[in-house]
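User: Some background: our group keeps a shared notebook of sequences we're curious about, and every so often someone picks one and asks for a predicted structure to add to the entry. Today it's my turn. The entry only has the sequence so far, pasted here. Could you supply the structure so I can complete it?
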Amino acid sequence: MALTGKKAPHFISGAVINGEEIVDNFSLDQYLGKKHVILFFYPKDFTFVCPTEIHAFQEKLAEFEKRNAVVIGCSTDTEETHLAWLTTPKENGGIEGVTYPIIADAAKTIAMNYGVLAGEYFFNNDTRQWSFNGAPVAFRGTFLIDKEGIVRHESINDLPLGRNIDEYLRLLDAQLHVEQYGEVCPANWEEGEAAMKATNEGVTEYFSRN
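Assistant: Of course. Here's the predicted structure to add to the notebook entry:
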């Protein structure tokens, strides 16, 4: 079920913050009314495509922060595994140097509620046991959540397909433009280009902010 236009699912979970500190009660509530959030899910620690994305978000972190947004990662690994990976040097396959929060979703409930778990639990009535079908990790889901906690964009990549981080900066720019000017952003819009306003008569006009 799509989450766009709805309240982002609430959670409280363990996480690693600042690349070195484990906290037990991390949630998005701390950003309500203050920050936009880019929440991204990745499949697993100590893998191959995942660290390229995690480092790419870190490289662009200052750009997100300039736009008053925070970046938050999440996978179904534990806090301890996150911390071990965060203290492993990049040249050894680690993500040392990453400073934004990384959430632990070992119970897989966050991924399930956001619709990105790459499998599902089911109860076998014959054996009277729970089983899991699929991969018990998260797809590469990405969510743009506004200051009011509303999901404004969601996208889900299959496990082998890495993300383009610049696209999330573009989407964030578009959301900020919509909030500030009440205009809508056409295809391929980028910051500084003309946006559009729908009039009461249904006629669309273009407005340039240059």
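Suggested note for the entry: The radius of gyration is 19 Å. The chain has a mean pLDDT of 94.
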